[in-house]
## 1
Amino acid sequence: MNGRAIWRERSLALLRWLLSIRYIKFGMVGASGTVVNIAVLYVGHEYLFQSLEGAQGKPYASLALAIAVATVNNFTWNRLWTWADRVTQPPKDADIQAPPASSLGAQLAKYALASWFGIGLQYVLTLWLAHSMHYMLANVIAIVIASVSNFFANDRWTFRKH
């Protein structure tokens, strides 16, 4: 096989993998996170941080809150649904059905660290794009771009196979 054929085959394999059920679940969770993000962004921008009238205060505060709430939402649903097969479960005869709070907190920390690039990318892109379009549209575009890096990081690290 020549280099072009190898590249094409690898690209098709990547596309097949991205369209697998796990990525679709991740996308659905991401869509719910987008709704949460936009709702919190709107409420923060229009109501919660109304007293911050500076050119930068209101968008920064409302966007930070929106990203934090959406991250917790996405972690919860990705853990319970997207990567449920990779979450360590106690033996069936164990009395404790939920993981200890410390391991859940550690996994949330890993999720947040694994997603930091996407979160930072979303934050910077939203603020940059908001100079030329409505802040809500800018936020949606930034979320779409950042979602791919979040999937790869969390699939390979936070919820990796043991």
## 2
Amino acid sequence: MATKITPLGRRVLVKRSISEEKTAGGLFLPDTAKEKPQEAEVLALGTGKDDEGKDVSELFTVKVGDKVLISKYGGTEVKLDGEEMLILNETDILGIVG
């Protein structure tokens, strides 16, 4: 059964890209030594309502499918159907890749 998450407000659901398992020199890194990637794919956009209930959905600068750079320590990690994802404010997105 697939579960669906719809972020609220100006939040965005993203999935981090897979991190490199090997260094440039050819050494394999254990999971504990890997740094979490800052590149992610946008999976869902929030409802687009601000604190007063006003619709601000047209103000989103990203769209579903965009590859983005996210802040290193922003957002909240969630697990959905065994996959790790991140819900963060749109302000935690640093830029669009590509």
## 3
Amino acid sequence: MEIFTKRIAIQTSRLYDFVEITDEVQKAVSESRIKDGIVFASALHNTAALIIQEDDSTVHRDLINTLERIVPLKGKYEHDMEGNVNATAHLKSNLLGTFVTVPLKDGRLVLGTWQRLFFVELFEPRRREVVVTVVGE
């Protein structure tokens, strides 16, 4: 069994920026030379998320609207030293998750027809990192 790890840098541009990272993750897989196994991607941040979703802005807006109903920006939060955007970003990150696991077959990510990997900014524009770990043979 082989293990390969690579960091991917991401620059977000706004709150609720959906940054598609599928190709970058696939590049890491290719660099690993591992053909069959699993790919684990993890965002190194508590105010962001990693999701598998369609590249469709209407789905993204529906997700944003749903998150805003569940964790409204104008709510009252104990973790408020950096304001409500930060407080809600932590909670939204917990709801969506900060990692994804994808099967690997013949050196390719095994994703459904419309599935893509997205880094979702839940706080403010900044430089972010995702660690990609490929495990297999």
